[in-house]
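From the methods appendix. Each design record in this collection lists the tokenized structure first, followed by the designed amino acid sequence. Records were kept in a plain field format so they could be parsed without special tools. The example shown here is representative of the layout used throughout.

RECORD:
FOLD TOKENS (204 positions):
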């Protein structure tokens, strides 16, 4: 994924997290999903067409479609009012693909940090599956917080490090990334727990 593309993945995840938390209306979030989703479909297509069949280039570009079609699907649902089950089952498919991309980051590209990032995205897409396809509405706020936090810590932050030439990866960095991912998931669960209803006022 390109550095600039990753930055805007972070932006759209941040917006979608706010949407799931009820802060940004769905139709207001649709524009960003359309913009970034379109870019994440057009650019990998151009990259593949110009790759000359190079397997590594095609592999690197292929993952972008997972994001592109997810964001376009989100925009479609928000603009048309379509039910979310289709997007939910698509998210399960994407979660499985993200696990494989994470393994490839460890084995083919020697990049443990992005291996962890891909696995974090796999967890996120699985949460989308649970909420949209399986009706686990109680997980909506947890998913919203996790989406928002991953937008910052798996999108914006690594993109800025890459753009500044300060990105580092290795075993130690991979462990730090894994610990951070677990902390973010736990924090999202805590923030997303249903708020207890206030007790009724005592009778006079």
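DESIGN:
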């Amino acid at each position: 994924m390109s550095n600039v593309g990753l930055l805007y993945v972070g932006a759209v995840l941040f917006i979608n997290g706010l949407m799931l938390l009820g802060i940004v209306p769905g139709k207001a979030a649709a524009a960003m999903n359309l913009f970034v989703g379109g870019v994440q479909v057009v650019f990998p297509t151009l990259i593949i067409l110009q790759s000359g069949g190079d397997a590594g280039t095609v592999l690197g570009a292929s993952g972008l479609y997972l994001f592109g079609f997810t964001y376009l699907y989100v925009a479609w649902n928000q603009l048309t009012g379509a039910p979310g089950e289709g997007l939910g089952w698509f998210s399960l498919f994407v979660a499985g693909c993200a696990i494989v991309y994470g393994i490839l980051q460890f084995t083919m590209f020697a990049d443990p940090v992005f291996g962890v990032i891909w696995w974090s995205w796999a967890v996120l897409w699985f949460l989308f599956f649970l909420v949209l396809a399986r009706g686990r509405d109680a997980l909506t706020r947890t998913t919203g917080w996790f989406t928002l936090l991953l937008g910052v810590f798996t999108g914006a932050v690594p993109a800025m490090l890459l753009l500044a030439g300060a990105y580092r990866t290795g075993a130690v960095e991979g462990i730090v990334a894994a610990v951070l991912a677990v902390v973010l998931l736990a924090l999202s669960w805590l923030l997303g727990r249903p708020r207890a209803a206030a007790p009724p006022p005592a009778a006079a």
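APPENDIX NOTE: Residues 55-80 form the longest helix (26 residues).
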